[in-house]
Amino acid sequence: MRQVVNVEFDGKKVIAASQYGLYFYDPTTREFLLKTTSEGLSDVRISLMSKDPQSGKIVVAYQNGNLDVLENEKLVNIPDILRSNFQGNKIIHNALWMGNDIFLSSSLGIIIVNTIKSEIKENIRIGDNGSNVEVFQLALLGNQLFAATASGLKKIIFPNALLSDYRQWTQENIPFASGEITAVLSWNEKLVVRKGDSLLVIVTGK
Fold first, then answer.
1. Confidence class of residue 2 from pLDDT cuts 50, 70 and 90?
2. b vs e for 156-172, b when ≥16 Cβ sit within 10 Å of the residue's Cβ?
3. Labelling 158: which of 29, 63, 95, 148 has CA 20 to 30 A away?
């Protein structure tokens, strides 16, 4: 049985990602298409598939850090993370689309990919003293960007602050929930975070 990583809808087709490929299903014509390495994907063991709601581009991340960006029938491979000298886990956890850039949450921190130039724009480390800390997810709320990390929930003014300056990232204190935060999303002008097996709703600024 193949585990489904994510499901998206592009307005015409349902797109599902498993570890080994992408499945395209047209509910109108009932046509079904499978896309794997044999049909152009660059790798196997998909860890993330995310679609930009504006452009329709799709990013596919693999467990070894390899990346594909799909736009219509065109596929561009971005192997920079795969080929990096970093020793250890290179997994991509989540993606946040911002214009032509993808903000990837990863074991390497925050990786910004420019989809026009098909290149890594920046690798941001937001741990203490600029050290690496694993980032699981990012969320925008108002003028702040929040990061769920292995060392808690961090935030920065966005877009005016310098993201690469670790000193501008501050810790968001959550009562009775210190330590690793594995997910964050904005909902109804509030933050929802996951700590262990619990979901917490946070009203920022209070």
1. low
2. bebeebebbebeebeeb
3. 63
